[in-house]
Please model this.
Amino acid sequence: MDTQVVSLALERLKKESLKSALEINTSVRRIMAETLISKGFLEAPPVIFSIVTDPLNHPVYDPSFMYGDYKYSLTKSMIFHKQILVQEIPKFFIFSPNVRLETPDKAASGRHLLEFTQLDLEIKNAHREDLMELAEELYVKTIEYVIKHNSKALESLGRKLKVPARPFKVYKYLDLQEKYGDDFEAKMSRESSEPFWIIDIPLESREFYDREKDDEPGILRDMDLIYPEGFGEALSGGEREYKIERIRERIIKKGQTFEQFHWFLEIAESGLELSTGFGIGIERFVRYICGFKRIEDVHPFPKVPGELSL
Ligand code: AMP
Ligand code: MG
Model:
């Protein structure tokens, strides 16, 4: 068994397609970082583990450990650190490694790893629409850059990419659900040839920290960007709830406890201002650009749900 893991890993490293994927990975990280830096963003280092991390809205195995008397968790996302940091540093990004010990059934999606990197960013006093514009610019610039600088890699992968037209189409979550049923995201993704937005996501489908609309209770001011050709979700983001009494209400509504988030609540009590951000999965973006069936083909040492990996 162990020998097979090693031989499969060595086989993976020798693939020509891995080299092409890494060339594209290099371009994706470079052009996105350069674009953000040119707009005045600062790059912050990642938090790899912490006493507080994202509760997530779906079950994963618990990646926590004790250090002295305190329980730490590996970072599932840097959401709370972003919301705290943005109060002082109004525009920043992080290449943030996330560990999400997803259940083995997730392997079937072709887009879940147990360990991946988000380009995670946050802006103070910005609104959802500002971030949607920024995401579109990053997306289009990246595709243009890759077409220009990685034409050989794309050719060897047999991948033809076209630059999508802006602005991307925007759909409301509940409208799509009514029209296409619960599987609307996958269905729309399969049938689209351009990326598109899903906005106004219902409160119960997301975590407590996303901000509810003032004029439409139960609906959040957040957004998902979806890849075409069946590649599914590219990024999630939204405006953050910043009023302490509303944060508390939302935690209760989720059936969570103040104790679970007391470190964050203590900071939030001293006063937060509005911020908005998103995180785009790098491996998923590279997978989409390469046109791979499976996300693990972009990574030299992928952690596939349910599998023993190097
Ligand atoms: P989330 O906030 O949960 O939507 O995660 C932000 C982004 O990270 C997603 O839109 C994906 O691009 C990426 N992502 C989330 N979970 C995974 C995973 N298990 N494997 C690879 N990428 C992921
Ligand atoms: Mg998401």
Summary: The mean pLDDT is 96. The chain has one domain: 2-298.
